[in-house]
Amino acid sequence: MNYFFVFIVFFYSSLFSQPAEKMDSIMYYSRLSNSSIQTNNYKDALLHTQKAIRFAIQNKSIQDQAHQNYNLGKIYFDIRQYDDAIETFSKSALLFSNVDPNIDLVSVNYHLGLCYSEKQDFATAALYFQKAETINGVLKIPDTAELFTLQKGLIYKSKNNVDQASSLFKIIIAKPDSPALLNTKAEALYQIGTIEATKNRNNLALNYLNKALELNLLNENLEQKSKILLALSTVYEKTLDRNNAYSYLKQHLNLKERIAILDNERLGVDDYKKFKESERLKEIQQINDDITEQEKATKFSKLISILAIALISILSLLSLSLYKNNIIRNQSNLLLQEKNKELEIAKDKAEKASKARSEFLSTVSHELRTPLNAINGITHLLLVENPKKTQMDYLSSLKFSGDYLTKFINEILEINKIDSHKIDIEYTTFNLKELLGNIQNSLKELAAVNNNHFSLEIDNAIPDYLIGDPTKLSQITLNLINNALKFTKNGAVKVLAKLNSLQHENATLYFEITDTGIGIPEDKQVSVFDSFSQGSIEVNRKYGGTGLGLTIVKKLIKILGGQIRLKSTVGEGSTFSFLLDFKISEQPLLEEIKPQANYDLKLANKKILLVEDNKINQMITKKMLNNKGIICELIDNGEDAIDLVRKNTFDLVLMDVHLPGINGTVATELIRTFDKNTPIIALTAISLLENREMLLSYGMNEVITKPFVPEDFYRIIAEYIS
Questions:
Q1: What Cα–Cα distance (Å) separates residue 602 from each residue in 319, 681, 683?
Q2: Are 203 and 329 in the same domain?
Q3: Rounded to whole angstroms, how far apart are CA atoms 656 and 641?
Q4: pLDDT tens-place string over residues 227-266
Q5: Residue 684, strand partner residues
Q6: Does residue 58 sit within a domain?
Q7: How far apart are CA 564 and CA 569, in angstroms?
Q8: Phi-psi domain of 658 (left: phi exceeds 0; alpha: psi -120 through 50; beta: other)
Q9: For 143-183, what is each residue's pLDDT tens digit?
Q10: Mean pLDDT of 620-632
Q11: Would you state the pLDDT for residue 361?
Q12: What share of the chain in percent tops pLDDT 90?
């Protein structure tokens, strides 16, 4: 019953034909929504339309609010959320009531009638169809009368008044064929066919239904076609023509399955729930924003306590959620082993759970970076402002907690990148002996803390230069050696790299990390590679750590084509080993050594534009810039940033990626149309959906990831500032 006015479609398509540079934010998001609907992406369509509504409210434009609520109602109607559609259409009708009767008000009332028809409330549907028809009669809109005739017939049929219904349907059938009437005539033929079938006039019913199917093939209404095929199957069954009955039933079932797939592609149930919850939270936030309240700063000790409690709470909630997800995954694995007959169904559930877990962890990790940037930034500023001696312990503890949580979130994001296949293998020339030597030097202090003898043995037969991924190899060896040193006291840790085989230009190397530490019980040697697993609660309490290191090691070795092996005895120690393949390089890698820059001299008196909408991050970032003598100008949205860069000269722009209205990437693209030279550096709490190459493609010069390390922050700015 999803019938749309041709003139409404034409009216709104004309709105979207304006040039992009002349559109305001409302039209910008309307165009994005329309594009998303055309690609069946109703998740983004909902988000873009809701943004357009918020801009219309900000602009206090009643007409725009009415139009955008009507668009939102149509989306709800398309995804069969009729209660939400009724609420939104009613809001649109109320807004349109402030202006003279127009075609929009006709369409809104007509869609309200369709919604109530879908909910089987035909009495209310009739009232709205009557409103729409009355306004339509005043406006005299062509090619629409048959729509109202059809709806009257359907309402008569719902009341079992089939004779009056048939007479109305026949009026529609008698009309000449036209593109605007194809869908309506096909529906009228189908309805008469079903009425004739109930009267057991099967031949007449088949005649109407076949004509309906012929017209349907011209308008590609899949839901209507599904109904017609089922009706044909039913009538053929009554006439004992089982071949045709089975054929049409099979077509109906196939088409029904296809419709279900298309519906799921439009918008999943989980996506819809997330959208509704997100909008509920935004409404609450909007209410809070409307109530302007300025509080005085609390005492220093209270600030430290709040920040510490926030860190502990965030970490506790995140750990609890991840622990529960881990339990659910283990239970799913046991269920798979016990029920082989349900393997395919269980596999599908496990994949969905894994995807949901990955999306959840990515979202949480990403969203935590912004408040964590504020915590780390405030801590840094307090530390450099000569705090009292009595405050140093608090600040040092807070810095340690912030660094720990940053490492924890980075490891979660690393696992998600691996699981989501968003990590690539690098192929570059490197010196293995130099790489392992640097790692040994960096961990000597940790070895000394536990009084361990740390040795490195490298086979001289290994070629000097190899081609592979030194970054991932460093991650693997650092994690394994760090664990060995941490779980060993007054003992020895040995790292061995040996040439296993050499064929043509390929070398297979054997790596082994051995310690004389506490060892791992045999029943824990498989689960120790699972996320958040450390053998036992006692080990976790005594030695600390996130329990993610070995998970990352196992996954990275698998990506590089190897497999990790473990041998361990409690009280005697552990040995981790693996084989990896490398190509041999005859040319050494030449690296340019850049001298350390004097940041204070280079940054002093430079003028930087900071585009950031978060008030706390504005305060922290501006303070850090001012500490280096930089002149900082603030702006909180992309539109004003474009205007400022056009009218002023800046040495550099710090551009937050996620901004209200036009985001940082779009703003950068527009700036590059008139300014090719000013360096623009992205500030982002980067997630699985973002990467450095993607952000640079918009015209940005570099990316600084939140929460950023102050030294890296100053170094990158100094590198690009003129």
A1: 43, 17, 21
A2: no
A3: 11
A4: 999 999 999 999 999 999 899 999 999 988 888 777 776 6
A5: 705
A6: no
A7: 17
A8: beta
A9: 677 888 888 888 888 888 888 888 888 888 888 878 878 88
A10: 92
A11: 57
A12: 26
- Is residue 202 located within the same domain as residue 335? no
Q: How many residues belong to the chain?
A: 722
CA atoms within 13 A on the CB side of 96: 22
User: Cα–Cα distance between 657 and 660 in angstroms, integer?
Assistant: 10
Closest CA to 551 of 413, 432, 713, 400: 413
Q: Which long-range contacts (CB under 8 A, 24 or more apart) does 113-116 make?
A: 113/151, 114/1, 114/2, 114/3, 114/77, 115/77, 115/82, 115/85, 115/86, 115/89, 116/86
- Predicted pLDDT of residue 626: 93
Residue 371 Cα distances to 4, 377, 414, 473, 620, angstroms: 46, 10, 20, 32, 12
Three state DSSP letters for 150-218 = HHHHHHHHHCCCHHHHHHHHHHHHCCCCCHHHHHHHHHHHHHHHHHHHHCCCHHHHHHHHHHHHHHHHH
Q: Where are the beta strands (DSSP E) in 61-155?
A: none
Quick one: 269 and 305 in the same domain?
Answer: no
- Asked if 259 and 164 sit in the same domain, the reply is yes
**CATH code for the domain in which residue 576 is found:** 3.30.565.10
554 shares a domain with 456: yes
- SS3 of residue 486 by DSSP: helix
Element (H, E) at 90: helix 82-96
| Average pLDDT of the chain to the nearest whole number | 80
Q: Which of 400, 489, 495 lies closest to 448, judged by CA?
A: 489
Query: Which residue in this structure is represented by tokens 């009280």?
Result: 571
Q: Where are the beta strands (DSSP E) in 21-70?
A: none
Give this prediction's pTM: 0.39
Q: Which tens digits make up the pLDDT trace of 331-360? A: 777 777 777 666 666 566 656 655 655 556
pLDDT digits (tens, 9 = 90+) for 526-568: 778 775 545 554 554 455 455 567 888 888 898 898 999 999 9
Q: Which two tokens stand for residue 478?
A: 């650092």
How do residues 211-230 score in pLDDT, each as one tens digit? Answer: 989 888 887 788 888 899 99
φ, ψ for residue 604, nearest 5 deg: -60, 135
Higher pLDDT, 302 or 68: 68
Residue among 658, 493, 489, 476 at smallest CA distance from 580? 476
Domain count, the chain: 4
Q: Would you give the distance in Å from CA 544 to the centre of its chain?
A: 32
Q: Give the structural domain span for 356.
A: 301-419
Tell whether 325 and 432 lie within a shared domain.
Answer: no
The pLDDT confidence band at residue 684, using thresholds 50, 70 and 90, is confident
Last residue in a domain, options 419, 448, 469: 419
Helix (H) or strand (E) holding 492: strand 492-503
Question: Distance (Å, rounded) from C-alpha 559 to C-alpha 472?
Answer: 10
Distances 385 to 1, 248, 382, 459 between C-alpha atoms, Å? 69, 80, 5, 51
* Buried/exposed code over 289-324 (b: 16+ C-beta within 10 A; e: otherwise): eeeeeeeeeeeeeeebeebbeebeebbeebeeebee
Q: How many CB atoms lie within 10 A of CB 20?
A: 9
Residue of 73, 150, 145 lying closest to 104 (CA atoms) = 73
> Contact 591/705 with Cβ under 8 angstroms?
no
Sheet harboring 607-611: ordered strands across?
A: 631-635, 607-611, 652-656, 680-684, 702-705
Instruction: Give the whole-angstrom CA distance, residue 275 versus residue 282.
Output: 10
The DSSP result for 302-320, as a single string, is: HHHHHHHHHHHHHHHHHHH
